[in-house]
């Protein structure tokens, strides 16, 4: 009987239940269930449909049961930074506001009045982003202080879902590192910072590492899905899981985890919290085995996904890619990390307005807009690789791209060309695989990170694209 490991990987635009087993020394992945995720407007804020997402998690678990493939263990990962506050009866206080919501506007100022940006970075090593949990919690403190008063616990979303499955609350390290409230060197809560900000210290409890067992399904969940299963903490931050499955040799090399966001960086054994690093907008997120994910957040395929949505999904990604190729001579470029691209009503308008404001030719056709988006992303990759090489005082000759975005042939070509580096593309389901790898490490099937990555190399085809 095959032993199955279930990875539930939820991204900003979709979630999936991937079931893994080992056959002839290779990992075999099977998609059991897929569902849509999206931002919804609620009480004037962009929110997640937290109850529906949990229902979808249960639907996917039931799909495994229906197929007669009962997982030995399972793990859940999602995007970072978002959380719920729970009252004494474990009910969510307020709405589950999403990180793209504008509630954090001005919160960076509030925080910097207490701790300067320089000091904050020196302590936490986290790149300044409007949506970091630290700014979201400040927004709660300013706008709904009663929620903080009433809160008995605080959980990031993957841990909240696991709590619903098991009744156990466990905060996990890689995701906790995205809050901007951890001390980068001690890897524990910076309690002084939490006190200085006037947040509630009691909410920030013990932090557990990937591989930790959370518990088994509660009797209620067992009754609903028809079986029991052990729930494990993977790197619950999706990017942490994705980086675990980047097929690097000895942890060496530049990677891009390419999805809604493009996370481009390297793996380090120690954090780099210098002023120079802060100015380059590089972050030190926590990784499996305390390997730091030293990377830059790049707006990523969100731009292309949003264009597609703005065109009412009339065109497939392939259509859009083809139209971009047909306009490869179009030369206007945008700074993909400009705040206007974070959550615009219409992405095409936002791109056009950027070009207009910067005195460049305004893209008119869909192909021109797409070419501008693609080439601007590749340009940002090249700049980011340059920043990383500058800080680390070394050169890299290749980039490993993993995640759904690595299937985009045109972006891979442009990336190779813009960076002058060989691109290796794959695996596609990097995040789900990283989630599974943490489970394999938890049960001793895989010894360590190096073995995990060699397992990926042995199991999945990797495409090579020369510059
Ligand atoms: C990618 C990701 C990024 C994080 C962003 C918001 O899905 O997790 O790593 O910066 O989403 O949480």
TrEMBL record:
Any single biological process term in GO: rhamnose catabolic process
UniProt EC number: 2.7.1.5
GO cellular component, one term: cytosol
InterPro entries in the cross-refs: ATPase_NBD, Carb_kinase_FGGY, FGGY_C, FGGY_N, Rhamnulokinase
Broad class of enzyme this protein falls into: transferase
Residue ranges occupied by any Carbohydrate kinase FGGY C-terminal domain in the UniProt entry: 255-442
Keywords recorded for this protein, A-Z: ATP-binding, Disulfide bond, Kinase, Nucleotide-binding, Rhamnose metabolism, Transferase
Annotated ranges, domain Carbohydrate kinase FGGY N-terminal: 4-244
SUPFAM superfamilies, per the entry: Actin-like ATPase domain
A GO molecular-function descriptor: glycerol kinase activity
Gene3D superfamilies, alphabetized: 3.30.420.40
Assigned protein family: Belongs to the FGGY kinase family.
Name of the protein: Rhamnulokinase
């Amino acid at each position: 009987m095959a032993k199955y490991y279930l990875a539930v990987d939820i991204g900003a635009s979709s979630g999936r239940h991937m079931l893994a087993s080992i056959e002839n020394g290779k990992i075999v992945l099977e998609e059991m269930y897929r569902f849509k995720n999206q931002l919804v407007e609620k009480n004037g804020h962009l929110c997640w449909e937290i109850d529906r997402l949990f229902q979808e998690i249960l639907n996917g678990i039931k799909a495994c049961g229906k197929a007669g493939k009962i997982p030995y263990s399972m793990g859940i990962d999602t995007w970072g930074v978002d959380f719920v506050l729970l009252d004494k009866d474990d009910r969510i206080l307020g709405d589950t506001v999403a990180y793209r919501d504008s509630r954090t506007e001005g919160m960076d100022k509030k925080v910097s009045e207490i701790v300067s940006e320089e000091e904050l970075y020196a302590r936490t090593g986290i790149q300044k982003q409007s949506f970091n949990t630290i700014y979201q919690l400040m927004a709660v403190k300013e706008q709904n202080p009663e929620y903080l008063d009433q809160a008995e616990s605080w959980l990031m979303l993957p841990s909240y879902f696991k709590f619903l499955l098991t009744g156990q609350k466990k905060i996990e390290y890689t995701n906790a590192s995205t809050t901007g409230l951890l001390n980068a060197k001690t890897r524990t809560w910076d309690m002084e910072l939490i006190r200085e900000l006037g947040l509630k210290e009691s909410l920030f409890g013990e932090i557990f590492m990937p591989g930790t067992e959370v518990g088994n399904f509660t009797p209620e969940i067992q009754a609903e899905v028809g079986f029991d299963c052990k729930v494990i903490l993977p790197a619950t931050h999706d990017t942490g899981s994705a980086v675990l499955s980047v097929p690097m040799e000895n942890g060496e090399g530049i990677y891009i985890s390419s999805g809604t966001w493009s996370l481009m960086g390297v793996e380090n054994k120690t954090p780099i919290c210098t002023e120079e690093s802060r100015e380059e907008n590089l972050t030190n997120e926590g990784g499996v085995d305390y390997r730091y994910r030293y990377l830059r957040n790049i707006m990523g395929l969100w731009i292309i996904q949003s264009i597609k949505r703005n065109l009412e999904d009339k065109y497939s990604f392939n259509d859009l890619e083809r139209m971009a190729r047909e306009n490869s001579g179009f030369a206007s470029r945008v700074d993909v990390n400009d705040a206007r691209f974070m959550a615009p009503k219409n992405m095409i308008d936002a791109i056009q307005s950027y070009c207009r404001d910067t005195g460049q030719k305004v893209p008119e056709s869909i192909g021109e807009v797409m070419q501008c988006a693609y080439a601007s992303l590749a340009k940002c990759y090249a700049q980011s690789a340059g920043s990383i090489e500058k800080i680390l005082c070394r050169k890299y000759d290749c980039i490993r791209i993993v995640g759904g975005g690595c299937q985009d042939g045109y972006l891979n070509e442009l990336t190779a060309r813009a960076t002058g580096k060989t691109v290796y593309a794959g695996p596609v389901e990097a995040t789900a695989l990283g989630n599974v790898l943490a489970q394999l490490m938890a049960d001793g099937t895989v010894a360590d990170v190096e073995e995990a990555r060699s397992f990926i190399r042995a199991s999945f085809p990797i495409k090579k694209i020369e510059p």
